[in-house]
Amino acid sequence: MIYDPSSTAVIVFFLFVGFTVGLSFYLGSKAKSSAGYFAAHGQIPWFINGVAFAGDYLSAASFLGICGMIAAYGYDGFLYSIGYLAGWIVALFVIAEPMKRLGKFTFADALDAKFDSPGIKAAAGISTLVVSVFYLIPQMVGAGVLIQPLLGFPHWVGVVLVGCVVITIVVTAGMVSTTWVQFLKGSLLVVFSTVLVVLVLQQGFHTDRTAFETIGPLELTTAEGNGGSPSPQAIAAAAGRSLYVDQSDAGLSAPWDQASQYIRFASREDAGYDVFRIEQSDDGIRLRQAQAVTETAGGEKFVGGLPFGAGEGERSLRPVGHLTELPAEYAADETTSEPTSESASTGPLGPIEFFDVLRRSEVTLWGSEKLVQNDAATTTVYFQKPTSGSKVLRPGEHPTFAGIRSGRWTDRINFLSLMLALFCGTASLPHILIRYYTVKDAAAARKSTIVGIASIGFFYVLTLYLGLGAMVSGTLDVTNSNMAAPLLARGISDLLFAIISAIAFTTVLGTVSGLILASSGAVAHDLLGGVMGIQFSEGNQVRVAKVAAVVVGAISIALGILFQNLNVSYLVGWAFSIAASANLPALVMLLFWPRTTAAGIIASVVVGMFSSLGWILLSADTYSKVYGLDPASSPIPFSQPGIVTIPLALLTLVIVSLLTGNSRPKTESDVEMGTKLA
Amino acid sequence: MADRLVHAGISASRAGHSLKGLQNTAQRHLRCLFTRPAKLGRSEDEPFAGLPGRADNAREYLKPAQPQFDNSPALASKRVANTLVMRSCMLRTSNIRRSNIACFFWESSDVTEPVNAPAAPSSVSPLGLTLFVIYTLLYLGFVLLNAFATETMDMVVVAGLNLAIVYGFGLIIAAIVMAFIYGFALRGDTGSHPAADDKGESA
Predict the structure, then answer these.
(1) A residues 18-47 near B, CB within 8 Å?
(2) Distance from CA of A462 to the nearest CA of B (A)
(3) Hey, which of A5, A362, A477, B41 has its CA 20 to 30 A from A24?
């Protein structure tokens, strides 16, 4: 699709960014000390901190990724919403208050509170860095994806822009400005998503069968063709169209000769072709219009045989996402009044009715297929998949989750493993954990977690409406589902699109600044201060942390550009698995098992981190998506590591602690007493 | 002797530094501490006898920790311990019975588990754990149904909604409701140590 950057969008966007950066500079004057830089002096009110939790947590993966996944496949994306929220239960009931009591600035503080061991600081600091970087890459990639349609800049400009803005935010005022940016973003995100959902419900559903052509059913006898299917000529004749003849010398037609499931007709409007997918059914042959993009080895892009673009003699991909059939009670008006009428609508719908109507309707989803040619030109064909509404409201349609319907045990375990990682991952994400130190006491930590759960939970309820609304909005980009929510807004109003896009952008800002702050704390406080024993003065510590923030920011900019083609939510899944395996077993056992030793914790963090990382790097998913190798050659039976590596880390902790069990840790009351009275 | 003493601590009052409060908390924590009177002093009446130079020289330990950035809990707790030893010394001169003040020492060489040590340093409230278990079971049910009885998710349960939607929304709403229940139940709690409080009250 071609996006025209609208001036409203640009203005709203720069207002947002300008305001956030201005706020950072204003708050910067208040955060000169380490306590101010890392933990905002513990003076953030619990309500603000709670909304900031939402701002921190609802990353690009939540807003763009989940909505996009729901828009493209239905309910499956919502499984992520459920898993991400369930993780907060672990955070509230198990982690929140002890975290606040035990630590000071970073997650490593809490883990190390009873031991004072440089080894723990090193392990926890490194795991913080690894998880943060894995989490940062998708955020940066998301920023690039977002800036392209919004401002018309290339991908790398988006990444650099986000990187620079975030570094400014973090360097000026550390946790104070980060918190306020996240608070702002969290509340705007929830408020405007609500507005969007209300508008979607107000609009209701309407059918659109004219957006893409369907020819047929055509009655053809198979005897005319070869291999049991009719010849293209016969189909063309029956459809009243003429076959497309490739006149260019680019040799782009070769792969089509093998792809008998598609047929190309000469376009009636321009020199290009219209591609149709041939579907055999009992009552004859149906031709459903598809869209094709060809990319040559030289990087030239063609759509339907014409150069990609919006000008004369050029073509671009058309927006997709339609509802093709409504339940009988709504469709009835259409058939009785005028049979040729192609549109029926429901009018405003209630929040429950919305699902009921959709379940009984039919929507058109889009699939894709790659046709590869010898000279490395690749054609991607996007084709219509009429799908019953009941299918988009149940799990198991997305490739990641399709396994639960395959009946294979490994696929089911893979699903369980992913859901376990989501459940355990939240409470071990370093950028979430550091937010417990910005409030004054354990009670405030608890209250802000409750506010966080309420706002995040409410937002996740909205994701299903947003995603399904986008699915039938007729505005989706067939090549990239990540833009579903902003494009849904564009279908309603340009201003709303501008606001939602700007919020999506601040979503990236909020999460990235939290992550960079967590990483800079890990470097300055845990690794340099705690492990290497470098004693900084108050001001120097902050300076070192700021330098670390700039370095981590620069690295993430580079990685964001490097990995621009990797799937966003896929990488977030990695971060969750690593965090859940490396951090959670150590944290939970420290709180509940008095015989935990320093060596046990170090071993658990290291084993959890490396086993999950190794598992991911050797998994079939990574083989096919990252290395481009045959997924069947992967030595790992299923892709999600959590179900193996979390218990493994736990077991390691228990065994090592039992073996090294003669160094008794201080009881928590000692530690608590120390922190309170210090 | 001095190098063998790796830690000195005393129970402190969270509620404030009033003498009464200090006494009460000291008693409460006494049970989880252990002393080694044979090495540390002649009798309980001389709780500081084990310190080098006895109480007069406790000043050695009273030096405030070096001002430095790393205000880690471990360092802080050592400093607090020192401060409290000093406080105890001052109390000795008053009319308050010394036995009400507990201080404890242990040596790095042969530490054994204290007989009356708390079973686990858990500080999670029982209500929190109960809610956590309930939610985990709910979530587990959802995940297992999805994995092993996927078709049940298609079942229309109520008002045209299938089980996938009802259970999914149910989990989100349950999380929010449980969070509020928890917050409401602990609304008077200021974030102190619930486990220690319970023990203190029952003592």
Answers:
(1) 34
(2) 10
(3) A5
The radius of gyration of chain B's CA atoms, rounded to the nearest angstrom, is 26
Q: Domains of chain A, with CATH numbers?
A: 7-205+423-562 (1.20.1730.10), 214-350+359-391 (no CATH)
Q: Which tokens belong to A211?
A: 């957006």
CA-wise closest residue to A525 among A108, A42, A101: A108
Half-sphere exposure of A76 (CA within 13 A, CB side): 23
Measured from the Cβ of residue A606, the count of other Cβ atoms closer than 10 Å reads 19
User: In A, which residues are within 8 Å of B68 by CB distance?
Assistant: 535
Show the DSSP H helices in A58-154 as ranges.
60, 67-73, 76-90, 96-102, 107-112, 118-151
Of the candidates A83, A48, A460, A93, which has an alpha carbon nearest to the alpha carbon of residue B179? A93
Q: Which residues of chain A have pLDDT under 70?
A: 1-6, 28-36, 39-42, 103-104, 173, 220-229, 247-255, 257-258, 331-343, 374-376, 530-536, 538-539, 565-570, 662-678
C-alpha span between A503 and A13 (Å, rounded)? 8
3-state secondary structure (DSSP) of residue A378: strand
Q: Which amino acid is at B44?
A: E
Interface check A100 vs B, CB under 8 A: yes
Q: What is the pLDDT of residue A15?
A: 85
Helix runs in A398-537, H state only: 409-425, 430-433, 442-471, 484-492, 494-521
The four Cα atoms B79, B85, B87, B89 give a dihedral, to 10 degrees, of -150
Instruction: For chain B, positions 36-55, list CB contacts with chain A under 8 A.
Output: none
Quick: pLDDT tens for A171-201.
Answer: 776 777 778 878 888 888 899 889 999 998 9
Task: Write down the mean pLDDT value for chain B.
Answer: 53
Q: How far apart are CA B18 and CA A79, in angstroms?
A: 54
pLDDT of residue A458: 92
Say which residue the tokens 């339609």 belong to. Answer: A322
* Residue B7 pLDDT > 50: no
Three-class SS state of A372 = strand
Lookup result for tokens 């150069």: A307
Q: Given an 8 Å threshold on Cβ–Cβ distance, is A664 in contact with B111?
A: yes
Q: What are the sequence ranges of the domains in chain B? A: 2-107, 126-185
Over residues B62-71, mean pLDDT:
36
Q: How many angstroms separate the Cα of A143 from the Cα of each of A639, A659, B117?
A: 27, 47, 52
Distance from CA of A121 to the nearest CA of B (A): 12
Tell me the C-alpha distance between A418 and A580, whole Å: 11
pLDDT tens, position by position, B74-125: 444 444 444 444 444 444 433 333 333 333 332 222 233 333 333 334 466 7
Chain B nearest-CA distance from A643, in A, is: 13
Distance CA B19, CA A678 (A): 19
**pLDDT attached to residue B2:** 31
Q: Which two tokens stand for residue B143?
A: 């995940």
CA distance A633 to chain B (A): 25
**3-state DSSP assignment of residue A40:** helix
Locate the DSSP E strands across B21-136.
103-107
> pLDDT category, B34, cuts 50, 70, 90?
very low
8 Å CB contact between B133 and B111: no
Nearest-angstrom CA–CA distance, A178 and A432: 12
Asked if the Cβ–Cβ distance from A591 to B131 is below 8 Å, we say no
pLDDT recorded at residue B19: 40
Instruction: Kindly determine whether residue A673 and residue B160, on different chains, have CB atoms separated by under 8 Å.
Output: no
Structure tokens at B173: 């709403």
List C-alpha distances in Å: A181 to A22, A163, A241, A542, A548. 11, 15, 57, 20, 20
Per-residue pLDDT for B51 more than 60?
no
Cis peptide before A217 (omega within 30 of 0): yes
